[in-house]
Amino acid sequence: KLFIAEDDLLFSDWAYGGIIVVAILFLIFLPFMKQLPRNTKVGFFIAAALYVGAALGLEIVGSFYLFNVEYSRWVVVLSTTIEEALEMLGIILFIQTISEYPQKM
User: Fold this and answer.
1) What is the pTM of this model?
2) Which pLDDT score is estimated for 17?
3) H helices of the chain, where?
């Protein structure tokens, strides 16, 4: 298929609402992020990009593939594994970044 029909993405429609929620939260936390040290800011941004990119982006791509390309159990298992692994990598990076945050006593 050349074009994506609206019905093809119905199973990932929650992801579009998630994108809006993430954008609103980004704007709310932007002042906080601006005052962080550069290393912490970069770490948080990369961690969030990995987590949100996997959770929302790969969900949309996976749904499109699942409903527009021939079904393959291995492709579904592999794409789900990649999605979950990237989410966990984002969480690990966030934990590492926050644990290295300079503490002022």
Assistant:
1) 0.76
2) 84
3) 13-34, 38-52, 58-68, 73-99
